Known about the structure:
This protein is mainly β. The chain is built from no helices and 13 strands. The termini are far apart. The relative contact order is 0.18.
Amino acid sequence: AVTATAVMNPASVQPGTQVSVTTDGNGQYLVDVHFAVGTTTLTISIVDASGNVTSMTYTVVVLDNTDPVLTIVGGTQYVISACETTTTGNVSVQIDDLCDEAINWNNLVFSVSNGATFVTGATNGNVRDYVLTFPGPGTYVATATYTDASGNVGTVSQTFTVTQVAGNNPPTIY
Length: 174
């Protein structure tokens, strides 16, 4: 009987580095390989019925040249209540990167314009929450930029409009 095997090096590369060998029963073998980003060596060995071994080695380089996609989710219209001078709003930044399994949050830069401030909230998977504080009525822009492990950059900006409710003025006595 003829057998075929395939070995990946590094074998621990994840996600997606998988190899399987199947036969059609008539001496034809299919080597099905799913490579992850990076350099992988694939060695395919075939042993015939007499024990003769033939091996082939391939080095495969898979590059990540896909920019991550960022989305800012949350309201874009905020109102400062009467008698108040500021208001807050909650937004989330979602990062989708087809080639990286995990998001490196140290590579995210988040900012808000015109004197608005933010506090970083919870992080869950590929989403991070922020609480924004707007110092008064006006237009503000939040920008998020993420650089993935391969140096690809994704950026998103979102405009926020903040208005002030008319004050409750006491009646004028004449």
